[in-house]
Amino acid sequence: MSNNRNRLVAPRNVVNTKMLYTFYILKELAKGETIFGNKILEVFRNKFQNAERPFPVSSSTIYETLYDLELKGYVTSHWIGDEAMNKRSKKVYAITDEGVEFYKNHIADYVDNLKKTKSTLDLMIEMLV
C-alpha cells in the first residue's frame, strides 16, 4: 500500500502574527517615534475588529515580540512615569540603527511573500467558485 496521497496543500503561512508585529513595530519606530505595548495592542484590535475572520491579537505576543527585538538589538527601551503623581509607569521603545537596517533589508521580501500567498489563495478560490 502506498503512503503517497494526492492532496492540495495550502501555501506556507507567512501571516505569522509575531512577524507582522515585528515589521509593524519597526516601521512605526523608524518614523522617529517611541511606542509602548498597549498602544500596539490598541492599533491591532482597532484595525482587525471588523475582519470577517478573527485575527489573533495577543498582548503576550506583542510583548514577546518587543522583548525579542530588544534582545536582537533592534530596539531599546526605558520606563516612563511619575511616581510622585501616582501615574503608572510604562515601558517605551525606540529603534536602533540595527533595527532600521533590519527593517529596510527585509520588509520587501516579507511583503512579497504575503502577496504571493494572497495570489495563490485567490487562484484556489477561483478554482472552487
From TrEMBL:
Q: One short Pfam family name for this protein? A: PadR
Superkingdom to which the source organism belongs = Bacteria
Q: Which residues form the Transcription regulator PadR N-terminal domain?
A: 26-103
InterPro entries reported in the protein's UniProt record: Metal_resp_DNA-bind_regulator, Tscrpt_reg_PadR_N, WH-like_DNA-bd_sf, WH_DNA-bd_sf
Q: Which PANTHER family match?
A: PADR-FAMILY TRANSCRIPTIONAL REGULATOR, TRANSCRIPTIONAL REGULATOR RV3488
Protein name as annotated = PadR family transcriptional regulator
